[in-house]
Amino acid sequence: MNIVKKIRLQFRKPEGLLGSIAGKLMANVGTEKNEWTIRLLNIQKDDTVLEIGFGPGIGIEFTSKIIQDGKIVGIDYSEKMLQQARKRNKDGIKKGKVELILADVQDLPPFNLPFDKVFSINSIIFWKDPVKTLMDIRALMKKNAVIAITIQPFTNGATEDTAKQIGMEITNYLEKAGYTNIKMELKNMNPVAAVCVLGVNR
């Protein structure tokens, strides 16, 4: 297996030295789409928030700066990303605003609080059964809670049309999972546009 393919596979479940490199790459290129996604969610200072696939913890860090009386919980199934995210968010963890859990979205752990907002960035492409997983996530959400699923496609030759097509697929998943008021947002970014699809748990 060549080194490029090995690095690509690391974005699924970063491990070892290559996992550390993948985490740094995600941190370098992920800030803009994390901030954009979180702004679209209109997170309030007392919200309880769940991030699925937190990677190096960029979205967790940004959200914890907004939240004052609420909490941000994150799950990721990479031990390497858990280590990086804990280091990045040590102050939020110490204050009790941040909780990071090693877990797989296909086997969600129990939570002791329902969520106002949920977001996931460049993670749904790795889910084995997106519709079932989105239904399981819905069960963790408050009534009228909002979910945001963001993807920036990095496949060879990806364009804005690629992002739109992915957005339509995610829209279909959310509809089948029972979400309503679904809307799709696009953002021009380098090297290719990102798409965010939002839905409401009615």
UniProtKB/TrEMBL annotation:
Protein name: Methyltransferase domain-containing protein
Record-linked Gene3D superfamilies: Vaccinia Virus protein VP39 (3.40.50.150)
The organism's taxonomic lineage, starting at the top: Bacteria, Bacillati, Bacillota, Bacilli, Bacillales
UniProt KW keywords: Methyltransferase, Transferase
Metal-binding keyword on record: no
Signal peptide: none
Pfam families cross-referenced by the UniProt entry: Methyltransf_25 (PF13649)
Keyword Methyltransferase appears in the UniProt entry: yes
Superkingdom of this protein's organism: Bacteria
Limits of the Methyltransferase domain: 49-143
